[in-house]
Each structure stands twice: as structure tokens, then as C-alpha cells.
Design goal:
This protein is an alpha+beta fold. The protein has five helices and seven strands, in the order βαααβββαβαββ. 29% of the residues lie in helices and 29% in strands. The two termini are 29 Å apart. 35% of the residues are buried.
Length: 181
């Protein structure tokens, strides 16, 4: 990046960001998973992924802006839910105990026009620092196949592979990944 290019900026997401975030997530799911899943898998992913407004309400969800445009988003949680949006099944808002539980890295999305710019790394760094500041010693996530290369490059290790079964019966592959803080 040369000095005339604006740097990426990080801030907490606000409720008025939600329409832009939902659209960004839809584009990211629809376009960035195409290299990892067949068309029916991409379509099924919309059922298990998406905006979790609890993260915004908790003040643990970040956006990255590039020249004033939202380029990506992601957050962390002190709640038990591992993945999914407001509409996803199996959510659990119970608070985690930092002494025994791992914080959750959640809902990481990069706009397709902003991949490979450091957006995901910036968000991960912010999530890890915030979770560490609240006393968590570990973080975990449910990674999509599209996110696995970034997470491994950032020091996350595979814990287990699993599948989220959608209402159509499609099994979306995920990897539970973790990292010590």
C-alpha cells in the first residue's frame, strides 16, 4: 500500500449498519463459497450463516472500512453459540466462563471486492485482543471451508470436522478450530 491509499479502519458495528452487513454477508456467502461448495451447498449455507444481532447488541462485533465503505465484518462472543445468524437453529445465549470456556470468534465475512487486503486478519486480531482483555485464554470458531486457510495462517488449529445439516438435508462442512491466547 502506498501512502496515498487510505488505511483500513476498524470500529464496532452499530445497529444502523445492519442492512449493509446483511447485504455484504449475502454477497460473501454467495460468491466466496463457490470455490469450496457445489451450488446446492452454497444455497444451503444461507440457512446456517448470517447476521447475529446479539453480537452487535453485546458490543463485540466489528466492521472494517476501506475508504469509507464496509469491507468486512466479524466478531467474538462471550456466549455459547458457536455459529449461525439470528435465524439459525440451535442458538444458546448462555454466558461462557472465561476460566473454563473458550470465547467464540463469530460471523467473519469479507466483501468479495475486498479479499486479500488484510480485512480478516485485522478483525481476528481485534477479537482476540478483546477476548483476552475479558479474561479468556482460548478462542474457538466454526470455520467454513472458505475461511480455513486464513485461520490456519493466523495460528488456529483444527479441533474437529463436523457438518451442519440444513432443512433440505444438505450437510454443510465446517471445522471447529481453536487457538490459545
Amino acid at each position: 500500500m502506498n501512502s496515498s491509499e487510505p488505511a483500513l479502519t476498524l470500529r464496532l458495528a452499530r445497529a444502523d449498519d445492519m442492512p449493509v452487513l446483511s447485504a455484504l454477508m449475502d454477497r460473501a456467502i454467495g460468491e466466496l463459497l463457490q470455490d469450496f461448495l457445489p451450488p446446492e451447498g452454497v444455497k444451503a449455507s444461507f440457512e446456517i450463516m448470517g447476521l447475529d444481532t446479539q453480537l452487535i447488541a453485546d458490543g463485540t462485533y466489528f466492521v472494517v472500512e476501506d475508504a469509507g465503505q464496509i469491507a468486512g465484518c466479524g466478531g467474538w462472543s462471550r456466549r455459547a453459540t458457536l455459529f449461525g445468524g439470528d435465524h439459525s437453529a440451535g442458538r444458546d445465549a448462555a454466558l461462557l466462563d472465561p476460566k473454563v470456556d473458550a470465547a467464540r470468534v463469530r460471523a467473519m465475512y469479507t466483501h468479495p471486492d475486498h479479499t486479500r487486503k488484510g480485512v480478516g486478519r485485522l478483525i481476528l486480531d481485534a477479537c482476540e485482543a478483546a477476548a483476552r482483555a475479558e479474561g479468556f485464554e482460548r478462542v474457538e470458531m466454526a470455520a467454513t471451508m472458505g475461511g480455513v486457510p486464513l485461520y490456519r495462517a493466523c495460528g488456529y488449529h483444527d479441533i474437529e470436522t463436523f457438518e451442519a445439516v440444513t432443512s433440505t438435508g444438505y450437510r454443510v462442512p465446517l471445522i471447529r478450530m481453536g487457538k490459545g491466547l
